[in-house]
Fold each of these.
Amino acid sequence: MKKVITFGEILLRLSTERHLRFSQATNFNATYGGGEFNVAVSLANYGLETEFVTRLPKNDIGDCALQEIRKQNVSTANIQFGGDRLGIYFLETGAGTRGSKVVYDRASSAIAQIEPSSIDWKSIFKDADWFHWSGVTPAISSNAAAVCLEAVKAAHAMGITISSDLNYRSKLWKYGKEPKDIMPELLKYSHVILGDLDTAFFMTGQEKQDPDYQDMESLPQLYDLLYKSAPDLKYVATTLRYSINASHQKIGGILYDGKDIYYAKTREVTPVVDRVGSGDAFMGGLIYGLLNDDLDKQGTIDFAAAACCLKHTITGDFNLASIAEIEQLAGGDSSGKVSR
Amino acid sequence: MKKVITFGEILLRLSTERHLRFSQATNFNATYGGGEFNVAVSLANYGLETEFVTRLPKNDIGDCALQEIRKQNVSTANIQFGGDRLGIYFLETGAGTRGSKVVYDRASSAIAQIEPSSIDWKSIFKDADWFHWSGVTPAISSNAAAVCLEAVKAAHAMGITISSDLNYRSKLWKYGKEPKDIMPELLKYSHVILGDLDTAFFMTGQEKQDPDYQDMESLPQLYDLLYKSAPDLKYVATTLRYSINASHQKIGGILYDGKDIYYAKTREVTPVVDRVGSGDAFMGGLIYGLLNDDLDKQGTIDFAAAACCLKHTITGDFNLASIAEIEQLAGGDSSGKVSR
Amino acid sequence: MKKVITFGEILLRLSTERHLRFSQATNFNATYGGGEFNVAVSLANYGLETEFVTRLPKNDIGDCALQEIRKQNVSTANIQFGGDRLGIYFLETGAGTRGSKVVYDRASSAIAQIEPSSIDWKSIFKDADWFHWSGVTPAISSNAAAVCLEAVKAAHAMGITISSDLNYRSKLWKYGKEPKDIMPELLKYSHVILGDLDTAFFMTGQEKQDPDYQDMESLPQLYDLLYKSAPDLKYVATTLRYSINASHQKIGGILYDGKDIYYAKTREVTPVVDRVGSGDAFMGGLIYGLLNDDLDKQGTIDFAAAACCLKHTITGDFNLASIAEIEQLAGGDSSGKVSR
Amino acid sequence: MKKVITFGEILLRLSTERHLRFSQATNFNATYGGGEFNVAVSLANYGLETEFVTRLPKNDIGDCALQEIRKQNVSTANIQFGGDRLGIYFLETGAGTRGSKVVYDRASSAIAQIEPSSIDWKSIFKDADWFHWSGVTPAISSNAAAVCLEAVKAAHAMGITISSDLNYRSKLWKYGKEPKDIMPELLKYSHVILGDLDTAFFMTGQEKQDPDYQDMESLPQLYDLLYKSAPDLKYVATTLRYSINASHQKIGGILYDGKDIYYAKTREVTPVVDRVGSGDAFMGGLIYGLLNDDLDKQGTIDFAAAACCLKHTITGDFNLASIAEIEQLAGGDSSGKVSR
Amino acid sequence: MKKVITFGEILLRLSTERHLRFSQATNFNATYGGGEFNVAVSLANYGLETEFVTRLPKNDIGDCALQEIRKQNVSTANIQFGGDRLGIYFLETGAGTRGSKVVYDRASSAIAQIEPSSIDWKSIFKDADWFHWSGVTPAISSNAAAVCLEAVKAAHAMGITISSDLNYRSKLWKYGKEPKDIMPELLKYSHVILGDLDTAFFMTGQEKQDPDYQDMESLPQLYDLLYKSAPDLKYVATTLRYSINASHQKIGGILYDGKDIYYAKTREVTPVVDRVGSGDAFMGGLIYGLLNDDLDKQGTIDFAAAACCLKHTITGDFNLASIAEIEQLAGGDSSGKVSR
Amino acid sequence: MKKVITFGEILLRLSTERHLRFSQATNFNATYGGGEFNVAVSLANYGLETEFVTRLPKNDIGDCALQEIRKQNVSTANIQFGGDRLGIYFLETGAGTRGSKVVYDRASSAIAQIEPSSIDWKSIFKDADWFHWSGVTPAISSNAAAVCLEAVKAAHAMGITISSDLNYRSKLWKYGKEPKDIMPELLKYSHVILGDLDTAFFMTGQEKQDPDYQDMESLPQLYDLLYKSAPDLKYVATTLRYSINASHQKIGGILYDGKDIYYAKTREVTPVVDRVGSGDAFMGGLIYGLLNDDLDKQGTIDFAAAACCLKHTITGDFNLASIAEIEQLAGGDSSGKVSR
């Protein structure tokens, strides 16, 4: 069984029920999630061995997060404890023409205060096959960015496959650095990058282009720009999203292997139950496909896109769909019949 | 007032809220339902006199089911008490491309252990006009099948109209018999059969055909095959369902009287609030139409299909729509305006 | 800052959850609302100074309504206390082809028993710019109608802009008068009328016409009929609603200034979370636009229609959308992306 | 099986959860109850045949009440339909030193508007053994009082046992009459009266006394005063309540048969889950005991007091305890061990 | 009407339901509270004019707090907006031998970052009669302590009565100062101090004593020690709490006027619904009594202690008891009878 | 770290909320628990390594149980999958004089159908220190009893300490055997037995005695009777429970080491939040104490009894109290103060 390590922040998610606005809420549903952990949950559900590395505060709220990680069958063996608080995000779920709203409450979180050199990456990566991180972590604090760099360097040195999700969040990046100061050094060890080209060029400080994701002629040249500064880069993937409204999305995907473009055809996603974490579901599907000899490139991008679609029907950050459910949808059956 | 008797199992239904998956549920909504009882509830709501015959365990959960039957204005006069437990089904309500999921938990239920000859059908049918059963009951156990056969024979002997809903559930039928061993003998007393032709041919052990439900030329011949072994058969009806996804169905219907095909035109049903029991709503509408001199054949199939559509908007197994609401929809007004 | 006064009834709203029918409900969500108060809430959210005049019973339920008014930042300075009870309306929220259902429980409400001359309108209107009322209030009782007339006369005498929402509710008007006995006298002081032409002609006792809201040729003539008996009338507006089903509406709007027709283009509204109060949201947007020098007539009707659309996505009677959200939609962005 | 008829009002009860004050409530639990109906529910649970006579509005809320009556296995055969609304009472459940709070919202209720002579008491009482009413009904309106008088006269004429619960509610009696104008005529047909002596003397216009419920010498003389004007009176009973605080009561009872005093010894009731309806539970126990040959007078008052105690542990108006549970407590076992 | 200003932090309170432990919670009830605001709410409920001064973040969660302040009828006229986040406290409500548990999550809160001189106290205090603060605010940060000192100095200069609640929270005070470095300077302007003597001596850096709160001989000498460094000090009060277990408290109080000790007798408080904020309820009662000419010193301490008792029966931080309810309990009636 | 293995059944627990009776419930809280698993959870919380061996069905409900085991930090390494269904128990939580009610729904559960020899006990016990089982498992079916015997024999052979909780449930034992046919053979390998003497004598087929648990003279002789047939027996312990009512218990304990009696003094437990699993909490405390060199015999029984007390304040089957909380109570501090 392949083993995948992910590193990042897990947050307490406090969401209003029944599409209520924040000002109407008298209670919040409490779940836990965070981009890199969400990827680990997908992979654990697909039967891979997974581990999540993070920093949690030593209090009851940190313990709840720890319990959730265990419940999802992800290893907690190398989690560090300390710091002031668990980061929080408040979520108001939109509907129709009203979009969902996220209020970040991440100041002074445990992982923002993580000390460089405090994680023993060598030991963590000993029997690992894959390391996954995303652009959210270096956006939190310079300490978090430094530890992230230690991780990719250690993974690189140990020959472990590295996947990077660009994941740009403009409301983070508040510690005085811009993505282009930090991300190029981190991305250069990547074997797989997930993101759209605009974000990729912005984060790597390259000139803005005008990608047409339907144009199989021009796209390869644009994707190729990312390969220049990442010598190990094998795959770039992009989630294609068309937002009709908050309850209705169209979702497809692209996988580029440095030579050919593979499309997952666009699917209707309506109604949207919860779209947070759908990009992580895509990422999880991508890693699963690339680690799975039974799936070729087309099969991989189809699986990733179908996983992303199904995530939209599931409350919370995690994609709790099974391989069988994803394969059924990837295979073209979107009828949603009752299973009994 | 006409009196209709139905016989079958009533189950405790435990469903997750807000489209949660089973693994996310910390509580279950508890309601009660079962195909033949659901039909009785529809008919009680339409003002008919109804009675439900079943077997319930003598414990608090059985008492809750009993209370629900009374609440729905269905007679409990001939319910038998005994056995280990009330059958349960767990329901996870899907959305969009994710279908709903039913987990049956019916082992050792009270009705599975019912004793042949323990029900006094003669007395039950004394002032009844109609008897309804479905293919779920003979699928439970050989005892349940035997009692079902006693019921149709008694009804036949007493000249009562018999309706049969084929209702094939592959996960039942676990006691060593196949439908074709049991169903033909049961179905041969039918005046009305509800089901699609594939199921009908499979259950009666006939050769598979390839029905085209839009083809008014070939359909009658196929339906006619069912009349051969059921000498009293007057009507066959089929619910037409096209599943766009779990939240979006198209629903129509067919009524065949041995001569002509009557269509209820296909309607959009979106969003689907709860589709469990929608076939029973169709059946209830059909019986109502056939018992009601004010509705001709076209009116009957229109009423049945509109009842089925409205059921999809109602949580739980029962069709709680009123005659007026169904007639409004059957009459073509699907605007769903606020009534105030 | 402009100050707007509204006058009318605030009700306790008891609604079933999760689309449950009344007969399935074991609890009710309790909120508060009423047409004229809903307009005040919209305007308070847009930053205007607002005040709501009403009559509340001196009991705990009346106190809850009072607290809600304060919470919404609407002045309670001139609320009168007394009477038997707070009016109630029960709401069952429909879905798809099943419409929502309102059961009024307003007999003997505090405002129905209000005494003429008991409100000091002169003092209330001292520093006010705008007075808004609707056709619901005169429908409650002859006392309520009398006080409403005192209000419009006082507003007229003091030169305050008066807006009138026709708001016809056939299940009210039970005290022996018809709209045409009461409404013409009330409407004649209007500067702004909101309503469709059928209702306007019915309430003013004029002959039924057959308006085509897409016909820019014939419409002005019909709207002009309303100007005859209302010498100060400047604007008439109409909400355009096309009800596909209870979960899917199309919403547009018309503003007529006595000369030209301004259209807000029709928008898809799906899913509908809660459509009660959407007309009040339109009215609130209209008053905001007319009081706001930055919005021209086209901008005003676009804002009003977009406010109405967004209201459909919000639970409860109030439009809790912000100016920024409404402007984004009015400006054409209905993508409902996550804000984070 | 003995048959008991009760007559009165059933209300929608809207209660806050978790001891919340009204001003904190965002939803209400909705149940149904009313003194005379509560008595019928107790008796139905004890296996007697019961029927409740009342007037319900023809709307969805009235239908919900009707459904609840059926669910509780009480006959609805002679319920009258009409009127504006179902009466409501709001309940805030206290704790410790904070008492529970009831806000009546009963103006214009269906039963307040009942027409004299509109109920066919002769037919209702044909096969009945017992009629029960309480002092709440004549307090509602003069019409309700008139129908109540028709009922007791008919019951008297037909030789049916009549029980009367004094049930004084000072906030009712608002139609211009005092209890002493109405109650003596009604009470004079009683075979059984439940109430404390202060209330009895007040309602019958007699001089205030100072009863000492522990004094077996003086009590009989005081109870005897009630026998003077009620020639058929056989039993008077009193619930003994000592309120330590809202969560802690002491409950006992007295039964007087015109000769001897029978005491049910005082029991600790803590915590109190819900004390509304505990007097009705006492009344139900009393009727059960008096109709049951197996219970002598001491057994009857012990059963009634134990039923009253157990009611305090049950949410809602009804005493849902079984005969076995009540007999266990009446027999002295208050250990509350887990039954499994 | 007297006007009272309070200054401090308002927090989002996230509490588990039904006595669940944090690790069992899947949702949190969301309310708002904070010592000084809680006092303002009590006083607003008693009919005084009140205003709360604080700093709130400009985001949806800050807006919710703002709305709650308005709902409670407390003026928001001088609230400052800015900073990262609203402070949070998580609450797990204990029962019996298991105590409640608070997890503070207040790092980087808006008020911790408040700028000295940024509040215009002169304008705020212009028509005020009383200023209240507590020892929580100077514990948050040195900036918060500095602004608190500005407030008491301004109030002192303007001749406004100042009350100080010692309120020691050991888990705060993390910015490098101890209470004895900060509190003496703040306390010296007090007219009224609430606290126990141990805390008072600790915070003012005085030697530990061993107070016996039942000893009327020795107590005055100990209280007198506080008067030395606070020249305007008139009253010192102490809440007497005896904790039998988390669900059972005994509550009394002491008021000392520099000469005599006034006792409020100890009352049983069981069950405890929620004890958070009970000290603030005491403080609110104390201020009310001292501002109210109708209450003498004994009446004042009785009112304060009864308010504290009643708070224990109310969920949330606020004492939502009315004057009438408190006076009833202060007058000795703790029977908790149903009010109807 | 010591490792403890437990073996038995884990059930889905469906409990009504807010003390509702079954007939009032419209939803059930869903948790998981079972005597032997509950013991494992206690020990995992105390920091021991634990593993639970059981049989789960391969369906979504079985998966939920699996997830719960992981969440509680108990190893799932040797769980067997198969069988029809997960056993269920329905729980109605009593209050005061009304006891809680359990309805078992365990027919055809996965573990009832477990095959002898299907568990590899040797491998499971390889690095284990302790094995715990209870009398519930052999009561389920003869297969379950057989596997239980295999386990104790294997543990005995490998020199592992064995603890046995007698746990008599009369409603189980339905497969034709009585405890005395099965239990003696199982118990004879015990090192520690938990139970009261009546149960012990009944289960081992010995003559009924009349133990007086306060009598230090006679008790040792009675306990000594158990040592005769269990050659390795070192300790017998008994939970002392005095049930005042369902909400008020008194709890103490006895530990006998074959020579001396050690008492944990009786403590008041009120209110009782949930008493299910309190015996397992006692057992968990006992094992912890006996495995912990820092606790002597008196310390061990004090810890066990305090753990049992605290469990009564916690919802669900598990004792989620920490070592620190238990030690605080065992040390005599039952004040339940707020921890903040």
Note: The longest strand of chain D covers residues 235-245.
Amino acid sequence: MFTITHNDKKSLARTGILKTPHGSIETPVFIPVATQATVKALDSKDLELLGASVLLANTYHLHLRPGEKLVKSMGGLHGFMHWNKPIFTDSGGFQAFSLGYGMEHNIGKIASMFPVPHSIGMPGRKKLAVVTEQGVEFKSHLTGEKIVLTPKISMQIQRDLGADIILAFDECTSPLSDYAYTKKALVRTHRWAKESLAARRNAKQQLFGIIQGGEYKDLRVKSASFIASLPFDGFAVGGSLGKSKKDMHKILEWVIPVLNQKNTEKPRHLLGIGGVDDLFECVERGIDSFDCVAPARIARRGNLYVHPPAGTMKNKFVINIENAKYKADKNPIDDQCACPTCRSYSRAYLRHLYIAQELSYYRLATLHNLHFILRLMEEIRASIRNSTFARLKKTWISNHT
Amino acid sequence: MFTITHNDKKSLARTGILKTPHGSIETPVFIPVATQATVKALDSKDLELLGASVLLANTYHLHLRPGEKLVKSMGGLHGFMHWNKPIFTDSGGFQAFSLGYGMEHNIGKIASMFPVPHSIGMPGRKKLAVVTEQGVEFKSHLTGEKIVLTPKISMQIQRDLGADIILAFDECTSPLSDYAYTKKALVRTHRWAKESLAARRNAKQQLFGIIQGGEYKDLRVKSASFIASLPFDGFAVGGSLGKSKKDMHKILEWVIPVLNQKNTEKPRHLLGIGGVDDLFECVERGIDSFDCVAPARIARRGNLYVHPPAGTMKNKFVINIENAKYKADKNPIDDQCACPTCRSYSRAYLRHLYIAQELSYYRLATLHNLHFILRLMEEIRASIRNSTFARLKKTWISNHT
């Protein structure tokens, strides 16, 4: 169901077409996150107009509210959201662990993002989730109700939600989990991978296995090798991606060659990553798809993407619209952008809406950031086809060679 | 600049065309409120798609933030908001009084809406506004900074904002102001009306005079007669509209015949009113335009308009989307509606978004309610032209004859 259409000669970057019952996805692709069956501040029509080709919804959130049975009765996620293109769902594992432990919703996947160390069962934090050999038990962050997720239950929920591509149930270890714990968790995750495959009922849903192993080379290699040996339709790289972006790149450099030996022709997803530089670095290392809340979340906080030369690695390719220097700025957010927001509104107007906390700001800002990332991925795909990927990367990330 | 195109034979209802530098407005018309230069949760493009022909922005809010000088430098409200159709601004008087006294933003115009009596300088409430013979001094609800509004200042602010139709500066008395106070305030308001006219500088801006006088017949008649004698381009009925909707109807029955004697051919706006039944009752009594935040505000609180027979006077023509009975309801909000929300989404999905407090809910709900009211006004205009206004009113408000 996945066809590679072009391989970059100088890197592991590649273009492909992933076929699903709701249409084809051109890869590499950025997948906007529709956590609760809506991309925050946008509706399905907006996403169509932005040219999004696929969304990812969250099993954990939808299981809690409105519940997968309701979604199923409404025609699955496609009918419920009125979105007729492909949908991914995650397994619920990540949220079960992060929310179950009462941590921030915006838990990062790289340890350096955390100013305060945390780990499973850390002192002073009420432990809301318990990992057993069967799965994870946790309390709903909405109602306090006890919830159990196991590979079988996760598969059942994802079957009811009806996504085109679903993920195996895994344990997402913390960036600060030690080797011993990560190794132990990996054994469980591998057993759960097989249980997830065994619990699959709907052959139309493609099931991706998840590679774990934290930041430990032998565990990542072992996991890639094991997961690639199972009859998954694709793979996802999940869990802790180390203490820096360099660690994340190393992890991909351990994992992808293993997949290339075993299963070149299956798609590879990177869970929860989506910075501008990440897209280049990880596509170069063989990633086909990304999902990430960041472009939408930073938009809501005033950070709006701009192209180089205004956008640089140093400013993370964003301007902060709250800055007083934009007070009377008649220019669009980004002079190279053709999104609905940039076509109609000035920085001054958006700054006013942001400061006044107007609801319209959140949509206009999200439209811009998602348009920006979706167009960037389109450019990346074209550059791979035209053998100009390295050059494109250089024009964006001049201080990374 | 206002041409009456049809007079209803059985009532004071009429259709007309109000010409402005930014295009013509067909009346009777409903004017969505863009308080801070945005209709909450929508952008200008949304309003264009809904077929809104005119907006009303708030002088008080825009004076405080971002300031009229900034708006002027951005090409006035039209340039700032990227809205090329007509715009009204109010005079700032209403907000100065209501917010100045630290009252709720959603202060009503009819006393029965207030469970707790309040009046100017009521005990226990910190008095933030002081009325002088020159104008009103109050503290910004944002910064605490002292602000002064006078007829001259209001005209200057409205000139800088650049609306097509501006309003005279008036004192908006409370629904609970007594006769003596209302009479005294009216003398001031009438002097301010003349001062507003004298302070007008831009002949392209049409200036409407405001008729006050609370719920007192002699004061309303006197005010209508006085304001109609001045060279205003149109009139607005403002201030306290009594203790019930019947009082409001009576006030219009006192005021409009006076205007009809003096100035049939000038448009008449009713400030801050816009319930479904109000549109019928007030059009019937000779009102040409309405502005009201209610359709958008009630949408944000889950109340969504439905046509008769589901919509009735008793349920105020709304369903509350939070109701459990809509949990798995595949129908659109209103089966007679062709708005973007009803064309794509079910009640079940909207209920989910509402309960999950998703940002997308607020826009989808606002789109529906404004579409509903704008289409209703379109129907009302057509019914006046076809001499079927009374019949149309009856199909909507069967228990009011």
Note: Confidence is low (pLDDT under 50) at residues 102-107, 113-125 of chain A.
Amino acid sequence: MITLDTIQTAHDRIRPYIHRTAVLTNQTINDRAGAELFFKCENFQKIGAFKARGGLNAVLQVARNKEGAAITTHSSGNHAQAVAFAARQVGLPAYIVMPRTAPKVKKEAVLGYGADVIECEPTLDAREAGVRDVMQRTGAVLVHPFDDDRVIAGQATAAKELIEDTGLDGLGQDHPFDVILAPVGGGGLLSGTALATHYLSPTTRVIAGEPEGAADAVLSFRSGQVEKAPYINTIADGLMTSLSERTLAIIQAHVTDILTVSDAEIIDAMRLVWERMKIIIEPSCAVPLAVVLKHKEQFAGQKIGIILTGGNVDLGKLPF
Amino acid sequence: MITLDTIQTAHDRIRPYIHRTAVLTNQTINDRAGAELFFKCENFQKIGAFKARGGLNAVLQVARNKEGAAITTHSSGNHAQAVAFAARQVGLPAYIVMPRTAPKVKKEAVLGYGADVIECEPTLDAREAGVRDVMQRTGAVLVHPFDDDRVIAGQATAAKELIEDTGLDGLGQDHPFDVILAPVGGGGLLSGTALATHYLSPTTRVIAGEPEGAADAVLSFRSGQVEKAPYINTIADGLMTSLSERTLAIIQAHVTDILTVSDAEIIDAMRLVWERMKIIIEPSCAVPLAVVLKHKEQFAGQKIGIILTGGNVDLGKLPF
């Protein structure tokens, strides 16, 4: 059970290691959306993504409680860097199982934080087998990318800061956030965002954005069971995983809706942020803005918080 | 004569219309440079560049003093947008003479601010003739991109904010800026930066960065006369113009040195900022950081302010 106290304690624990990232606004994008948007810039976070928060909250506890001699995880993306970064902070070895197809630049980033990279075939079975092998061989503790309360509580601190730093919680004179949006992949960020918002700004709805080409969460949300996506084909490479029982339960309790967008809509929103806000966001990160621009009538005139999740893109492979 | 009072008055005049842009730092870039860098992010400024400051300071005075019925300038870049933006704020018509070879996206940005675009041949003679014609026909007042004390005083407010917001002026407990760097094209920003630094943080050196492919300022600085560049061929499209007598005089009085960098060094520095700071800067803007990375021994261990001048790039034509 992740309580408000769990989230506050997580925040106190990770605060010395993270950036309190800026909340930016942009008049042109407000005009385009017909709403008032506040962007929580986790692209400026350590390792370039919010994942530093959850990784730190888990790894710092593993180290303090002496739960294991090392840390392991499997990831081809930002969570790999987050765990490698967090393990370095506490001086534990990190073993990151990565598919051999992962971009070289991502492997190098993980190596740059002093972690070991163990290559495997690009299947979930091979990745999980790789982690089991590391755990037996090294006594490492697994820090799962999202199916872990400590990770979820860490991710919750992004929405906590967004609400605290804008003061849009309904306690002040300003009208509170009508809605806070986050993208959904495995559901760690979305669960944390929904819980933080539930506790800190209870009148605010939480809505998720999901790519059409990885639309498992919207199905699971409606059926109440963990579903697979009908197909996986999207530029939003951080959002390809499916929910777990744990994240689905939190999402069903505290999320209002999940809306999908196409890759073309994601790329348009990403380009708008690059051109107008002059900041670099990755495709997964543009999904919530794409949702707002697609469903303008639903968000017209509202105060909207958006978690910009990360800025790790390969500049040699841009979609425009 | 641009005094401290001139700059303070300019700042008060333009403050309601501009952003007080953030000053960002980045550990990785500090480690790479072996120095402590503070980036003044004018890429987040209105119209995406510091030029909004000088344009506003001139146009607001033209309007208040009823000096003319309209505003005109010639520019293919950020100054065109700055004048169009400023003229719209005061409700004066703006006529912007642009070479017919200017990118369509830049013409559209100027049109988007409600200005008229007058196309001409891509030569300085044709541009100046175009402006003379507009002035005769419409009674417009010329706001030159840099050869104008009001423009220089406006540009000076960027360094003023950088010094004020960091407190690194030698009056507090912290060691002041050892050096502040700006790029040099026509010298408007560099002159303003040098004057603001001279008045507000007098122990701080001011150094300029210039592309090897538009290296007029370094020659003029050494000879004491306005010189032409040996050749013009650089990706830093905002820095192709030469100094004027006015800007050269200020630069000779208050600038310590001008250092040149190659286009390859500019692109490397630009990519480093995009990848590590997750912000979008244009090539001209990367020149001072390229200087610091090229001459590490000269800047080792120092506190360095850098004016990041703008973020208007064509995402369809990136150099990486």
Note: The longest strand of chain A covers residues 205-211.
